[in-house]
Amino acid sequence: MSKKIVLTILGFFLLMNGCSESSNYKLMQTKNAESKKPTKVTSQSIEYRILSQDRLNIILYKNPEQNAAVVLQDLGQKMNSEGILVNAAGYITMPLVGKIKVAGLTQTQAADRITEAYKTYLRTPSVYLEVMNKRIYVLGEVKNPGVVKLDKEKMTLFEALAFAGDLKDSAVRDNIIIVSNDPQNGLVMRSVDLTSFDTMNYSELMLRPNDIVYVQPDGWKEFRVASNNLTAPFEAISKIASPFVTIKYLKD
Q1: Mean pLDDT value of segment 114-132
Q2: Given CA atoms 108, 113, 118, 122 in this order, what sign does their dihedral have?
Q3: Domain that includes residue 178, residue range
Q4: Residues whose CB is less than 8 angstroms from the CB of residue 208 and which lie 6 or more positions away in sequence, other chains included
Q5: Phi, psi angles (nearest 5°) of residue 77
Q6: Other Cβ atoms within 10 Å of 158 Cβ, number
Q7: What is the pLDDT of residue 20?
Q8: Is 195 left (phi over 0), alpha (psi -120 to 50) or beta?
Q9: Does 92 reside within a domain?
Q10: Residue 165 CB-half CA count within 13 A
Q11: Greatest mean pLDDT among 10-14, 97-101, 202-206
Q12: CATH code, 120
């Protein structure tokens, strides 16, 4: 039996032993079983609440019946394509009315608050407001991992995976991890089994802006990566030593 085969077998047993507790290859591992219990996502919790560092697209109408928009430049503020930034304290600064706190509000509530502020200066103001940077992050065993931009309040897990190009063959399908930032409980993790329609429920599949979807690799891919890492140094040494071994063989 060659040295490489022996090392590969040894690596396999070492890997299996290591996987019994934790793995350096998989993300978001936890020993807290409670954190993996599915949590309900209701229509109320789906509605996005503005955060610090969000960028807002704001349009102010001075006469909604005539659809006449007030150009913010005319009021002393330049509105660019990047929107208005919510600062670290949760405020935006608007012309005439000054600072308005919007962090923690839904888009509708923030629009209403700005509208109220402008009633002092305009007869019938109306505000359109939309968060420009709503997104979901898809990581792991998908064909196109990365950022999925949201142009609406919610998205299902299936939609997010479709935007990411679908699952790879090496994906674990019965334990898709979703991490959400809950305002009251902080980071919350839930697991979704896509292989069982009977246990699937619609609210469980709903994603909120800034959710992280992580598709785990199966054990075989983890083994292949770990075994390649284990044998790579020996292969490098073998390539370096090969010319010297050949010269010695020719001399003999």
Answers
A1: 89
A2: positive
A3: 31-46+134-220
A4: 41, 45, 46, 48, 154, 180
A5: -130, 135
A6: 12
A7: 45
A8: alpha
A9: yes
A10: 12
A11: 97-101
A12: 3.30.1950.10
Tell me the whole-structure pTM to 2 decimals.
Answer: 0.66
DSSP, collapsed to helix, strand or coil, labels residue 154 as coil
- Tell how strand 186-192 and strand 146-149 pair up: unpaired
Whether residues 41 and 154 share a domain: the answer is: yes
Q: Which of 20, 182, 45, 217 is nearest to 190 (CA)?
A: 182
DSSP-assigned states of every residue in 17-72 = HHHTT--SSSSS--S-GGGGS-----HHHHS-B--TT-EEEEEEEEEGGGTEEEPG
Give CA–CA dist 215/234, Å, rounded.
32
41 domain-assigned: yes
The encoded tokens of residue 223 equal 């083994």
Highest mean pLDDT among 74-88, 125-139, 199-213: 125-139
Task: Look at the chain and report how many structural domains it folds into.
Answer: 2
Give, in order, the Cα–Cα distances in Å from 38 to each of 157, 192, 198.
14, 7, 15
| H or E stretch at 117 | helix 107-118
